[in-house]
């Protein structure tokens, strides 16, 4: 009886030590936090990949499915589940720009705009012709500006927005954000100019309260 009890104690100790070697909640961090996974997590990844290989004709298609699911949860404001899906997509095929765009958006929304910027930079490199990345990146730099009150970050945001406009001159969000950025720099003339352009292209991108404030300047 004592031997059985002792064996059970050893098993429980081993189980505890084994679980302690597994970093927790890494699936809600971009690229699993860049940490070394434990044996159990590696085996779980292998099982997931094998399952995806059975369900889809190739890993590109499987990755696209996970990305689609990631955006779904992102727009439902379920950021942790969205991150889990983008991580699965990264595991399947790490060269998709949308994965890093997702990482950046979620990281920024969780209050870490400085960390988010590097993911937007990766997305830009993978797909340099998409102007929407520059909207996301500029938003992150604007967040940093609002926290640190350093106008240099706002100037970086403006550079991003201007680059985005070169790629897509009909993106109303870019004009709207430029208007806001110049307003914070106290350049009312430029702020009004870009607001006018935003109204022509995408009126829904304009905050009505901001428009009212600017019109009274």
For the termini, the CA-CA separation is 86 Å
Q: Fraction of residues in helices?
A: over 70%
CATH class of the largest domain: Mainly Alpha
Query: pLDDT under 50 segments (min length 5)?
Result: 10-14
CATH topology of the largest domain: Serine Threonine Protein Phosphatase 5, Tetratricopeptide repeat
| Content-based structural category | mainly alpha
Largest sheet: none
Number of domains: 2
The CATH H-level homologous superfamily of the largest domain: Tetratricopeptide repeat domain
Radius of gyration (CA) equals 23 Å
Can you tell me the overall shape? elongated
Question: How many separate helices?
Answer: 11
Number of strands: 0
Mean pLDDT level: 90
- The ordered string of helix (H) and strand (E) elements is HHHHHHHHHHH
Q: Beta-sheet strand percentage? A: under 5%
The CATH level-2 architecture of the largest domain is identified as: Alpha Horseshoe
Oligomer: single chain
InterPro entries: TPR-like_helical_dom_sf, TPR_rpt, Ycf3
GO biological process, one term: receptor-mediated virion attachment to host cell
TPR repeats: 97-130, 172-205
Keywords: Repeat, TPR repeat
């Amino acid at each position: 009886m004592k031997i059985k009890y002792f064996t059970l104690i050893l098993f429980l100790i081993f189980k505890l030590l084994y679980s302690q070697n597994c970093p927790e909640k890494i699936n809600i961090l971009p690229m699993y936090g860049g940490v070394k996974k434990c044996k159990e997590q590696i085996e779980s990844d292998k099982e997931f990949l094998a399952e995806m290989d059975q369900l889809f004709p190739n890993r590109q298609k499987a990755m696209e499915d996970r990305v689609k699911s990631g955006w779904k949860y992102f727009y439902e404001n379920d950021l942790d589940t969205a991150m889990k899906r983008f991580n699965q997509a990264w595991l399947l095929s790490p060269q998709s720009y949308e994965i890093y765009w997702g990482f950046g958006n979620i990281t920024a929304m969780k209050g870490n705009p400085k960390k988010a910027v590097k993911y937007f930079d990766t997305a830009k490199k993978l797909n340099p012709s998409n102007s929407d990345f520059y909207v996301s990146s500029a938003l992150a730099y604007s967040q940093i500006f609002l926290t640190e009150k350093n106008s240099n970050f706002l100037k970086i945001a403006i550079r991003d927005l201007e680059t985005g406009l070169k790629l897509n001159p009909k993106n109303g969000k870019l004009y709207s954000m430029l208007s806001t950025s110049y307003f914070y720099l106290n350049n009312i003339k430029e702020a009004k100019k870009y607001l006018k352009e935003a109204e022509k292209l995408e009126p829904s991108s304009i905050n009505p309260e901001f428009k009212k404030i600017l019109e009274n300047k």
